[in-house]
Amino acid sequence: MATERELDEFLEQAEQRAFKTAQFAVRKPEAALDIVQDAMLSLAEKYGDRPVAELAPLFHRIVQNRILDYFRREKLHAGWISLSGQSQSGGTDDDVDMLEYLQSQQPEQQPESGEQVLNRLQSLEIIEKEIEKLPPRQREAFLLRYWEELNVADTAIAMNCSEGSVKTHCSRATQTLAAALAAKGISL
Asked: What's the whole-model pTM score?
């Protein structure tokens, strides 16, 4: 059983990666933040008494379910707007301050030159755009395995599919990403 401290530590470690995962899916920072906060509350309230080893797949399943709920609400909302003849207004703020995000994720190191920072940011932007182009299940498997560093079994639990499906989705995603990035001159 997870202690309150272990749960807090897990959520602190998972928060930024879950936010990025949600943002890849919904492409709106505010909505992604709401999704992650809701998922964190749900995990703490309903599953906080589970063993620490079970928290990661449970949390990621909750995040994915909240993302699906978001799209269901958006579809319903869009249907009501089209029925009422109103148009959606308001700007979108799809941009995240990448420099601020990267600095918050890095331990103290020797400062990079401006050129190194620019090159890294441009490469990350290209990689993110290519990840966004992946089919949803491939993107989900890829992010859970390589961003969240879940093993195949935990990823299968989080995605509610077989381990073989996880391996297939990850393989296809990595092949697609490698080809797209190689075409743009980025090798990983």
From this structure: 0.57
